[in-house]
Fold this protein.
Amino acid sequence: MKLKARLLDIQAGSKSIALLDDEAASLLGVHSSDRIEITYKNEQLIAIVNIASNFPPNQVGFYEEISKKLGVRTGETVEVHPAERPEGLSYVRAKIRGERLRENEIRIIVQDVVERHLSDTELASFVTALHIHGLSMDETEALAKAMVETGSILTLDKSPILDKHSIGGIPGDKTSLLITPIIAAAGFIIPKTSSRAVTSPAGTADRVETLCPVNLTIEEIKEVVNKTNGCMVWGGAMELAPADDIFIQIEYPLAIDPLLLPSIMSKKKAIGATHVIIDIPTGRGTKTKTIGQAEALAYDFIDLGKRLGTNVQCAITFGEQPIGYAIGPALEAREALSTILGNGPVDLKEKAINVAGILFEMVGLENGKQKAEALLKSGKAEKKLREIIEAQGGNPKIKVGEIEVGDKKAEITAIGEGRVLRIDNRKIAQVAREAGAPREKGAGVTLYTKLGDHVKKDGVIFRIHAERNTKLEAAIELAKKLQPVELSKRPEERMLMARVPTRIIRKKTFMLER
Amino acid sequence: MKLKARLLDIQAGSKSIALLDDEAASLLGVHSSDRIEITYKNEQLIAIVNIASNFPPNQVGFYEEISKKLGVRTGETVEVHPAERPEGLSYVRAKIRGERLRENEIRIIVQDVVERHLSDTELASFVTALHIHGLSMDETEALAKAMVETGSILTLDKSPILDKHSIGGIPGDKTSLLITPIIAAAGFIIPKTSSRAVTSPAGTADRVETLCPVNLTIEEIKEVVNKTNGCMVWGGAMELAPADDIFIQIEYPLAIDPLLLPSIMSKKKAIGATHVIIDIPTGRGTKTKTIGQAEALAYDFIDLGKRLGTNVQCAITFGEQPIGYAIGPALEAREALSTILGNGPVDLKEKAINVAGILFEMVGLENGKQKAEALLKSGKAEKKLREIIEAQGGNPKIKVGEIEVGDKKAEITAIGEGRVLRIDNRKIAQVAREAGAPREKGAGVTLYTKLGDHVKKDGVIFRIHAERNTKLEAAIELAKKLQPVELSKRPEERMLMARVPTRIIRKKTFMLER
C-alpha cells in the first residue's frame, strides 16, 4: 500500500513508531501495536503502529527517528506493508507463561530491544514477568552476554583491570571518589564508569562533575586512563549495554529491578574488568535487609562473574544510615576531598579502605586494607585524585571550600532531647531532592548527627542547603512532614516495629492459557 | 514553571501525554513517565511526561486530547508542576508483588485507567501481573463493578432482560443472529451488543452490518428494543465499561486475557441483563481444551453473576471445528438467514436452539429447546429478524442471494483421498483474514467438508472468496502453506500428538523486593 509520508518534527524517545489513521490501518489489516514494514527508495525498516484517529487516511506519520533513518520528506510516497511480529515477542510470551528461556532466545529478545522492535507495552510485560517468575542463572548469564554483545566495548589492552560497583540505595555514598584514586595510586588500572542519579540525590557522575567534566568519549577515556591509570566518568554516553538503559527506563515507573545482576555485570564486562568488587549495603532501609539476603545476592554475583570470566568478590557493608554527613553532589564532593586530605568522617574512610583493600587482595597483594590506608595517609591518593581531575579537564588544585554549595540554608532542630534511633535513608534522600539535588549541584543535606548520637533540645539534627529560596522552603516543609531522623530517649518506648495489614497473597480464579 | 504550549495537531490514541525537552524535565525534576500537572486559565489536568530530546526547553508539547481539554493554543503560556503519581499505581505495584487487592484499591485503579492517569507501560505490567498471579473472585467482582461504574449504562426499565455471550475462538459462529430473534419472537427483551473482529475473520457486529447498520446510539437502541424486543448492535460506540476497552488494547500484543470474566460480565451488567447464558466452546483448537476446564470457567461465571445480581448459566459446546460452513461477514450472514429460513447446517441450528432453549428455561419456561425450535420452524424467528433489521435501518425483505459476497473465488482441493481428521480453527481464520475479512465483508471461506467427511482425490475441501484478486492470491498461498484441513485415511497413521521440547519452568535467582 502506498502512503504519503508526514514528518512530525518531534522525537518519540528512540521508539520506532509510525502513525496511521483507523481507515489506513484497517485496509492494511493492522491494529495498534502491530508492525509495518516501510520502504522508501533503498531504505527499509520495521515500525510499530499507533492509531491516530484524526489522521488523513492516505498518510503515514513519522517521528524524527524514523524519518531520519529513511531519509524521507513530507509528501513523499512510501510503500507500507504489514510485517510479522518480531521473533523476540514469542519468547517474551514464553516468559510470561513462566518458561525458562534459552541463550539463543534471550539473544533475540535483546537484539529486538536494542533495535526497538519491541514496544514499551511488550517490554513492560517482559520485565514484570521476569520480576515475578525470576531468572535462572543460565538466563542471567545469557542476558548479560547479549547486553554486552549489543553495545560498545572499552578496549584498554591491559590486565588486570579493576572495578568497583555498589548496588546503591544509600544516600551520601561517595566511596568511589576515594577508592578510584587509591587503586590507581597503587599502579592498577581502574576505568570507573558511573551513572547519574535517577531516584537518588546524587550519583557518582553527579558528584565528580562538581570537580571536572565527566561526559567523555571512549577515546578521551582511554587517554585519561593511559595517563593516570584511572578515570571517573559518566557511563551513559558510552552506549555500554544499551539494552540495559532501555530496560531501566521501562522499570522506573514500576519500581522493579529484576535485571540487577545482568545490568551491573554487563557494564563491568563491557569495560573489560577482570577483578570486580561489588558493594552490597545491608540492613534496614537498604535493598538487602539481612546479611542472609546479602549473601545470597553476593553468591549470585560471584557465580555470574565466573560465567563471564570476571573475578568477583562482594563486600557486605553497613547501610542503615547515610555514609558520612554530606548528601548532594557538591556537598559530597567536598566531603570526599576532605577525607582524602585526612579530615573526613570515620565511616567513609573505613568503608573506602576496606573495599579498596579487598580489591588489592583480589589481585594478589597482602594486607590490602593497610595498603589502602597507607596510600590515603601518604597523600598519594590525593595526588592521584588531582591527576585524574586534571586529565578529565578540571582544576587539579581545587580546595574543599572552592566547591560551590548552595548558599540558602536552614537548620532542622530537635524538639526535645534524645538519642538518634533511626535515620531513614529514603526520607533523607527525598529532602535532599526537594532542595534541588541532583539537578542543582549545590543543593542537599548535611547531617549533624548519626545513629546513637545524643541530641539536646533545639540541637541541630541536619542542615538543608539549596540554591533557590523556593526549593529551600519546599525542602523544609518536606523535612517537617517526613521527619527523616527519629529521636527517642529509650528504644523501649517504641515496641511496635511494623503493622501487618490484612492482605492475602494468591488463590486465583480460572485462567485461560492461550 | 511556566512553559509555552505547542500543539502537535495529532492524537495520541486517547492517552494523556505531554512532551518535554530533557532540560525542562530536569528543571522540573521529572523523568519520562512521571506526571505533571498542567494549568491553563481555569482548566487543570494531569499528563504523563514523554521526553522529546529535540524540543525547545521552554515549550511543552500537547497531543490533541490534551490541548482540546485545556482549550489552549500554540504559543500560550501554561503553568506546569510535578504531580504525585496516581494512587492506582501503588496498587498496581502491590499486584506485581502478588498481593490481593481490596475493592477500594481496584476501584481506584479502574478510575485511573479510565481517566488515563496510568501509562501503557504501567497497564501492561498490571495485566501481566494479573495473568501470572491470577485474580481472586473478590477481585474479579470488584473489577467488574468498577468497570460498570466508570462507564455508560443502558436503562430499559424492563425485566427480565435476557442476553447471550460466547467466549469466542470458533470461526463461523453466527449463532447470535439466530438466538436474538428467537428470544425476541417469544416476547422477551434481548438487547444484544456485540464486538467487531479483532483477531478473527468476523465478529457478530461485522456479520449483522451486512444486513443493517449496527452503529447506533443508546437512544436509538432503546427505540429499536421498544419496537422489536431485541437489537443486534455494535457495543463499541456505547462506552459500556470503557476500562475494559483500554485493557483489551493493552492485552492484544501480549496475547493474554486475564480479565475475561470481568470483561464479559461488566458489559452484560451495563446493559442491565438479568439472565445471561455464556457459551463456552470447548475442545481442541478452542480456548478451553477440556470439559473440566470449561466447567471450572463456567462455575466462575456463575459465581460472578451471583455477586453482580445476574442469573448466569453456561453452555459447554463442541468447538473443534467452525460452526456451519461459512466464515466471513457476508458469507455468515447468508448462512444465518438460510438457517432461519429452514435450510441451514445442522450444527448451527442445533447450537442456536439449545442455547436459546436454556435461556427460555432460565426465565421459567419448560421444554426450552422445543420452544426455540418451534419459533424457528413457524417462521416467527425469521419475521422477528426482519423486524429488527428494519428497525435498525436495513432492508427487511433481503434475500439470501442479495447479501453480496466476493466474486473472486478459488477452490482448494484434496491432493489424495481421505477422511477429514482435523479442521484447525485458527488456520481457517487466518486464511479468511488473508482473503480480506473482516474489513472486506464479502471475503472469507466456505467449507465443503466437516470433521469425519470423506473426500475424494481432487474433491473440493473449501472455497476462498475475496473482493480483490491480490487478496485471493495471498489467501490461496497461505492456505497451501497452512493446510487448515487435515485428511488422513486412518487416524492410526498419526500416532505422535505433540512433542515436548526441553524447557524447564521456574527456579529463580535472588530477587530484590523493593
